[in-house]
Amino acid sequence: MIRMRGILMAALVAFFATGCFEVEQSIELKRDMSGTANFKLGVDMEPMVIIMAKVQKEMSGDKSPLTAKEIAAAKADFKKNEKKSTSVKEDPRKEAEGGLPPGVKLLDVSVAEKEFGATTNMKFSFDKLSSLVGVKLGKKKEGEGPADPTKKSVIDTPFDGLEVSETASTISIRTKPQNPADKVKSEAGEQGPPMDADTEKMMNDAFKNMRVAWKITAPFEVVSSNATRKEGNTLIWEYDFQKLQKLGSSKKALDDMGVRVTYKK
To answer: Domain coordinates of the chain in residue numbers?
Structure first.
């Protein structure tokens, strides 16, 4: 079982960059319902580096806690291997430009490298808010060949589930914040047998510091919303790992905690 756990965790690290996530989607609306949208995805691999080191130690028959020296060695090995695997840098714009629906344009994209990961920021413009649902990352432009299946993103449709409805006097926006842990666990199930309880605990430990946020800025009066907090005209919804787990537990939880706002036109 320990060996299978090690294989599974190694596959997750290699193919899905499992780590601690910081995800933020934000929308800035104009009165005609056009505007701009930002998508931020930060990945910190340090928690997973330590978990993998622990699994490898257990596989050797030693279940004692990792020492500071062992943790330092695991981090050094990760940096060395990461440097080899990322010697060729790809234009980050290609990750988004091939999957843009009509009415959506990519304005800017940047990638900030960190010691154990990276933060990607993308900015889009849209003619109408509902068009954002069709944004797909990792899809190459026509004629550029197929996408690399080993470079999957934990969130490849950042505005999936966005719903916009209007009446004569109101505009309502709803969506379900995406949980990166769900995607990773789903992909893990395709790679091998179901996770045992110890493996799932390790996965949850890796995600425990995850942060997900949604922000909507609009020039309208708010009729009702369940936002966590407000800054000026910006409504903010914030989620940690535990809250995201509850969010996916039932329809009632989604109704209570999912992004929901109604504006007066």
So the answer is: 2-264
